[in-house]
Specification:
Blueprint lengths: L1 E7 L11 H4 L4 H9 L5 E7 L9 H5 L3 E5 L9 H12 L3 E5 L6 H7 L6 E13 L13 E11 L9 E8 L4 E10 L2 E6 L12 H14 L23
Parallel strand pairs: 1-2, 1-3, 3-4, 4-9
Antiparallel strand pairs: 5-6, 5-7, 7-8, 8-9
Helix pairs in contact: 4-5
Bound molecules: zinc ion (ZN).
Length: 243
Amino acid sequence: MIRVLVFNEFQHEKDPNCRASTIYPEGIHTAIAGFLNKEADLTVKTCTLDDKNCGITEAVLKETDVLLWWGHMAHHRVPDEVAELVYREVNNGMGAVFLHSAHKSKPFMRLMGTDCSLIWRESDDLERIWTTTPSHPIASGLPPYFELPGEETYGEAFGIPTPEDIVFMGWFEGGEVFRSGCTWRRGHGRVFYFQPGHETYPTYYDENVQRVIRNAIRWAAPVYRVQNSMDCPNPPRVHHWGK
Ligand code: ZN
């Protein structure tokens, strides 16, 4: 079983003046957990900004294989210590998937080491998402391209370190392009960023988006997890060539 933890700041959805409150009345995290819970190999928990310590402690992360992160308007309210815990546990082998405006979240910026800036506008553009690395596990089962009838436009230049793979490239009808699906390794952990998911569009109900997120979780699940980074066994030498 892959143990998934979905963090969502859960602020827009509680604002009755925001379209997010009707699209995701119980929060983006609940919508994401809803489709992940249909998978036999995943166990899913959620936490939000208003939980004590964001619901994230060292013990919680030790029991998490892959952390998903959605945040936007309240990145600054996530304690630095929480970002540091996530940073450390990814380096120890935990997987992390950062969604949409989580590009500016504290843990993502800490993991990237750059300012992760981009250009953006909200003009209801159609987005066409191209599968640029179809052989990548995160692209498994995805068509050559798929479309979202409306998304927030994100554009280059995206201030990230050069990704290990660019699995998806987004094109918007206004003409912008964006590296929409990128992978990195950090220490022993795997990191994926996926651009779609603005709170005023029903993006997380889209079947292709859901497939990408499921694939990303399985790809990011740890193969190896550091138990005690200070452990240096220094075994006695057993080979004696020519002696
Ligand atoms: Zn957005």
